[in-house]
């Protein structure tokens, strides 16, 4: 089954404790991206990757890191999480100009 | 100015009603356009792509007006199961970035 898999689904952590949210896709897509969704602000792009070892900032990259060492994986790293990063996160993948396929989301709470 | 503007609603309509959503975009060179449906903080799911000539899928019709830079979604004969948030999505001319409207909330009332 074609899918984008994110883990974990829910995560509660404390300020400053490094965490990684994993994202994997099995559709051989070149393009992968991360979004956060906050009430009233909609989905905002954090980082995206056009291919292996090619990443670029989206609209809200501060406080986040990504890596793309393999085509299928695109982890999101929060080196020192802060409460303002409490949000609902989505990973997505696609071929260029095609619709995005979303993972089922990670609800992060930073206390 | 936001890349994509969308009326957040909410729209509360009776079953069987016809409802329309619009979305405007600011980049005239935008290439691809989509409507997504999102249920209660779940992941957005593709409802339909939007083509220049307009396209229809059952009760749903999507249209693109490049001159006025807006896309629209028409839902006919609304069902209770249509209750959700509808997101318009625009892809830039480079294909690198996707921009989302904030979503329009629809509740279909029995």
Summarize this entry quickly.
The complex is a heterodimer of chains A (111) and B (110). Chain A is mainly beta.
Order of helices and strands of chain B: EEEEEEEEEEE
> Which whole number gives the mean pLDDT of chain B?
92
In helices, the fraction of residues of chain A equals: under 10%
Q: What is the molecular shape of chain B?
A: globular
Please report the distance between the alpha carbons of the first and last residues of chain A.
Answer: 36 Å
Number of helices of chain B: 0
Query: What's the mean pLDDT score of chain A?
Result: 95
Describe the structure.
- The complex is a heterodimer of chains A (111) and B (110).
- Chain A has 111 residues and is mostly beta strands.
- Chain A contains no helices and eleven strands.
- The radius of gyration of chain A is 13 Å and the shape is globular.
- Chain B contains no helices and eleven strands.
- In chain B, strands 2, 4, 5, 9, 10 and 11 form a six-stranded mixed sheet that branches. In chain B, strands 1-3-8-7-6 form a five-stranded antiparallel sheet, with no helix packed on it.
- In chain B, a hairpin with a 6-residue loop joins strand 4 and strand 5.
- Chain B is globular, with a radius of gyration of 13 Å.
- The N and C termini of chain B lie far apart (38 Å).
